[in-house]
Amino acid sequence: MNWLAILYDDRCGVCSRLRRWLERQGTFMPLKFVPLHSPDLDVRFPGVRDFGPEEKLVVVADDGSLWKGDAAWITLLWALKKGRELSVRLASPAMRPLARRVVTAVSNNRLRLSRWLRLAPETTGVTDECTDGTCAVRPPPLPGTAP
Q: Which of 25-29, 44-48, 121-125 has maximum average pLDDT?
């Protein structure tokens, strides 16, 4: 495994803030952040919508491995230099049920938390240039790719 792609909800303030925090962390491998509402998501990761990325975090590795929900969070922590030890603890049989409950609670309430904490998302699904009644929001390009 050489890199991880993190599929995150770019219309969620908590998710967008977490992405920015993760970008500043030391990692054992590159993390590529992919907005859930990216127009090329289905091309880059065929079939990924079958795993419910709009409901829970999904992480995909370059070797095709895929994790969702608490497994995705544990894998993401495992990739962080300061998170690996915690990921091993959370993956243990004693802690896994707690990790699953916390991840589910946060995932199910991320938009409410965003409003309550007044965290703005990266995209809103609306632009000022909606001339024909349909709007397209282009996410920022991935690092190292052309816009």
A: 25-29
Residue 56 lies in a domain: yes
pLDDT at 136 over 80: no
For the chain, give the DSSP string: ---EEEEE-TT-HHHHHHHHHHHTS-BSS-EEEEETT-TTHHHHSTTGGGG-TTTS-EEEETTS-EEETHHHHHHHHHHBTTTHHHHHHHHSTTTHHHHHHHHHHHHHHHHHHHHHHTPPPS--S--S--SSS----PPPPPTTS--
- Tally of domains in the chain: 1
Model-wide pTM > 0.90: no
Interatomic CA distance for residues 57 and 70, integer angstroms: 8
Residue 143 lies in a domain: no
**For residue 130, what pLDDT is reported?**
39
Domain assignment of residue 26, given as a range: 4-117
